[in-house]
Amino acid sequence: MCPKKIYGLLINCLENGNCRYGSVYCKARCTSNCDAVAECGKDSKDGKTTCPLNTCCSQFGFCGTTQDFCGNGCQTNCVLEPSPPSDSTTSKTLSKIIGYYEAWNTRSACHKTSPADLPLDALTHLNYAFAYLDPDTFSITTIDAATSISLFEEFSNLKTINPNLKLFVSIGG
Prior knowledge:
This protein has helices at residues 67-70, 150-156, 158-161, and strands spanning 5-6, 9-10, 12-14, 19-20, 30-32, 56-57, 63-64, 98-102, 125-133, 140-142, 166-171. By secondary structure, the chain is mostly beta strands. It has a domain at 98-171.
């Protein structure tokens, strides 16, 4: 028999173990959960629910992005490889180029990189990865003892090279 839940959703189970939604499947042969509704489509709660992020709603009422969902019998948003929006007047593609600087890279045996070695003219935003919040003093410090605290100053000095660069410190890791 099929489970009473699939992907966390209630389903209808047929005697042969197949799981389906709707009146076509939930008749005398149905063995459980006849009040179940599909995630999307004609057998959803309101009969017209669409999938989040405009993904495909399969013939069986499940959301997804593969041929199984977008192919034969698909109910809504049935485009396997959607094109990006064509409204170029509001498009801001590549208006932000965000980079991460890994602080431990100064100790790397291969491709050692300092913050100034980055392509700063190509970036709009740069994150320092990672800093640490000292639990005793609540001050921001390096994530490990091997990373010099002077790296913070070296990182902030990048503004002299590219004054428009937005600098951020990522806490954690």
